Amino acid sequence: MKSGGTLIDPQIVSVSAEATNSGAGDGRFSINQTIERANSSASVELIVDAFLSDAQTNGQLAFLIESGAIGDTTVKFFNYLQGSPIEVTSVLLNDMSKSFSLPVEKLILP
User: Fold this and answer.
1) Which terminal Cβ of the chain has fewer Cβ within 10 Å, N or C?
2) With contact defined as beta carbons under 8 Å apart, do 62 and 33 qualify?
3) Residue 68 clears pLDDT 80, i.e. is over it
4) pLDDT tens, residue by residue, 77-96
5) Cβ-proximal residues to 74 (8 Å cutoff; 6+ apart), any chain
6) What's 4's DSSP letter?
7) HSE, side-chain direction, 13 A CA sphere, residue 11
């Protein structure tokens, strides 16, 4: 996350078995896979959990997605406030990096 709030206690909930490594911290999440798997356009899943603080309800959260993957990268955001995941947005990255904004209320309101 680039701006608009602070991610508190980011933790990796699960990583698909195909991942070679993953990490969470300092507002960043990462996942890697083998070059052979990336070349085959296969997916790798990383699910993370974090608390959002210091965000204004009428503000925007700014994110930066970076990828070295071959082909497209899809990043999905979910709201878990009601206990069940509700998809808020899906962002398709078909380049090496992409910045985008998401209204805060989509992630903090049920």
Assistant:
1) C
2) no
3) no
4) 887 766 778 888 888 877 77
5) 90, 91, 92, 93
6) S
7) 3
CA distances, 30 to each of 12, 21, 24, 91 (Å): 10, 8, 7, 16
Q: Are 54 and 73 in contact (CB under 8 A)?
A: no
Model pTM score: 0.63
pLDDT given at position 69: 65
Q: What's the token pair of residue 87? A: 């998809």
DSSP summary character for residue 60? E
Q: Specify the pLDDT at position 78.
A: 80
- 105 vs 7: CA distance, rounded Å: 15
What is the tens place of the pLDDT at every residue in 4-63?
677 778 888 888 888 888 888 777 778 777 777 777 767 777 787 777 777 777 778 787
Write out the two tokens for 51: 């608390």
How many CB atoms are closer than 10 A to CB 110? 8
Exposure of 75 by Cβ count < 10 A (0-12 exposed, 13-18 middle, 19+ buried)?
Answer: middle
